[in-house]
């Protein structure tokens, strides 16, 4: 199994198979608009701008499970991210990243890259780096700024 075996609904309502990203390096992030880490959208977009042509895709998955920090509608989320951070990478509809209603993609990601002391995603802006074959390389904590992942992205892009 790989991330390519999963699909999710884009924020515009279209079902998107992750197999459409075969051969690309993925940075999958659960996001929220009212979180202290929300400014990471700017760094995520900068990485996307810098490495997209080399094969990087950033995939944002809004989540309202952590202190309800993503209460907005899908349209409001898209507008907020686009207007405030210039986000042009794919955003998906809100998902659960933990608990009994966990999205199957996040069940897979957390099994392949468990966190410190727990498999569960513990907060917004947890990041999963995935190689060109769809395998999880590493999980990064919310406190890890996207720019600090740059070398790992470069290594994955060159593999």
Give the integer mean of the pLDDT values.
95
Query: Would you list the SSEs in sequence order as H and E?
Result: EEEHEHHEEH
Q: What percent of residues adopt helix (DSSP H or I)? A: 25-40%
Total domain units: 1
Could you give the order of strands across the largest sheet?
A: 4-3-5-6
Strand content: 15-25%
Whole-angstrom Rg: 14 Å
Distance between the termini: 20 Å
Main β-sheet description: 4 strands, mixed
CATH superfamily: Glutaredoxin
Instruction: Specify the structural class.
Output: alpha+beta
Q: How many strands?
A: 6
Query: According to CATH, what is the class?
Result: Alpha Beta
Any guess at the CATH architecture? 3-Layer(aba) Sandwich
Which descriptors would you attach to this protein?
two-stranded antiparallel sheet, alpha+beta, peroxidase, 159 residues, Glutathione_peroxidase, oxidoreductase, Thioredoxin-like_sf, glutathione peroxidase activity, Glutaredoxin, single chain, four-stranded mixed β-sheet
Question: How are the elements arranged and paired?
Answer:
Elements: E1 7-9, E2 15-17, E3 25-31, H1 40-51, E4 56-62, H2 74-85, H3 104-112, E5 127-130, E6 136-140, H4 150-158
Parallel strand pairs: 3-4
Antiparallel strand pairs: 1-2, 3-5, 5-6
């Amino acid at each position: 199994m790989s991330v390519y075996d999963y699909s999710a609904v884009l924020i515009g309502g279209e079902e998107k198979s992750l197999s459409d990203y075969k051969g690309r390096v993925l940075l999958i992030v659960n996001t929220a608009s009212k979180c202290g880490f929300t400014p990471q959208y700017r760094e995520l977009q900068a990485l996307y701008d810098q490495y997209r042509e080399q094969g990087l895709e950033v995939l944002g998955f809004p989540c309202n499970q952590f202190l309800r920090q993503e209460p907005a509608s899908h349209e409001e989320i898209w507008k907020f991210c686009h207007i405030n951070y210039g986000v042009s990478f794919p955003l998906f509809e809100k998902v659960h990243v933990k608990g009994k209603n966990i999205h199957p993609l996040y069940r897979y990601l957390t099994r392949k890259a468990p966190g410190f002391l727990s498999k569960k995603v513990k907060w917004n802006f947890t990041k999963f780096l995935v190689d060109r074959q769809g395998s999880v390389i590493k999980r990064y904590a919310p406190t890890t700024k996207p720019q600090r992942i740059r070398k790992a992205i470069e290594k994955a892009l060159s593999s």
